[in-house]
Amino acid sequence: MFEAVTGLRMNHAFVRPGGVAQDVPPDLVEQVRTAEPLIRRYLAQLGDLMLANPIFKGRLVGVGHLNLAGCMALGITGPVLRSTGLPYDVRKTDPYCGYETYDFDVPTSDGADCYDRVVLRIEECYQSLRIVEQCLERLEATAGQPVMVGDRKIAWPAQLAVASDGQGNSLEHIKEIMGTSMEALIHHFKLVTEGFRVPVGQAWQTVEHPRGELGVHVVSDGGTRPYRAHFRDPSFNNLQAVAAMCEGGQVADVVVAVASLDPVLGGVDR
Fold first, then answer.
1. DSSP letters along the chain, please?
2. In this structure, what are the phi and psi dihedrals at residue 206, rounded to the nearest 5 degrees?
3. Is the pLDDT of residue 56 over 80?
4. Are strands 19-20 and 15-16 parallel, antiparallel or unpaired?
5. Rounded distance, CA 238 to CA 261, Å?
6. pLDDT at residue 169 in the model
7. Which of 39-53, 123-137, 164-178 has the lowest mean pLDDT?
8. pLDDT per residue over 155-192, tens digit each?
9. What is the mean pLDDT of the chain?
10. Domains detected in the chain
């Protein structure tokens, strides 16, 4: 919804070791502040359209029920777990990236069915807007500060051109490494093709994904590539619940139950 309103997009190449590829566009804060009331209005309209609709409620209320014991037994997280009344959110229980400094609530309900999960997700959108408002204040206060570490052995690649897609090096940087600095060219080539070395060890980190808890376990042997990497994708774990949610129901309930899990099949395949 945000992308549709503002036309802004952040791809997976934006966040990098040591920071981000480039600073946000100069007019980002203004665009987001303009888009925010529109998004709030659209969310309210969406809620008015669905939540009191008797057809919508008739199809979702009491369907796909999974209680707290079932969620705990199957390792279910995210809105499905919070619809049982348990306020488990990694951003609160094990904060990362400074989430402990933001003011937001973790919505819960106790209906534990498909309808409750819709209500929860809409409320989570409003909580996300609260976080966005606080982010905007911090962006304004830190304008002009570095967005990447100064260590050129890690900061890859440096001096990106300011473009809407954030791709490609600036012409000045290309001119330098290709024409005036052989050392810079060699360093750029090694960093792009080889990467940087990570000390021997292992790390486990979880984040709050829209579908639940996303975990990553990586092991380093001291090289430039992970010796082992394993992802704990919430969609994969949550899909285990389909059988329990649909037992004793109708075939049509399977569609509603799976939709309430909102799985990303790419994460399931991984």
1. -HHHHH-----TTSEETTEESSPPPTTHHHHHHHHHHHHHHHHHHHHHHHTT-HHHHHHHTTSS---HHHHHHHT--THHHHTTT----HHHHS--TTGGGS-------S--SHHHHHHHHHHHHHHHHHHHHHHHHHHHHTTTS-SB-S-TTTS-S-SB---TT--SB-HHHHHIIIII-HHHHHHHHHHHHT-----SEEEEEEEEETTEEEEEEEEE-SSSS-SEEEEE-HHHHHGGGHHHHHTTS-HHHHHHHHHHH---HHHHH-
2. -120, 150
3. yes
4. antiparallel
5. 7
6. 62
7. 164-178
8. 765 554 444 444 556 667 677 667 777 777 777 788 87
9. 87
10. 2-147+198-269 (1.10.645.10), 157-194 (no CATH)
Percentage of residues in the chain with pLDDT exceeding 90?
65
Q: What is the pLDDT of residues 134-165, one digit of tens each?
A: 999 999 998 888 888 888 777 765 554 444 44
Sign of the alpha-carbon dihedral angle for 60, 62, 66, 68: positive
Could you tell me the CA-to-CA distances from 256 to 242, 245, 262 in Å, in that order? 10, 10, 10
Return the number of other C-beta atoms located less than 10 Å from residue 76's C-beta. Answer: 27
Contact 244, 74 (CB under 8 A): yes
pLDDT at 9: 59
CA distance 70 to 225: 38
For residue 20, what are the β-bridge partners?
15
Bridge partners (DSSP) listed for residue 201: 220
- Closest by Cα among 94, 89, 98 to 135: 98
Model pLDDT, residue 267: 85
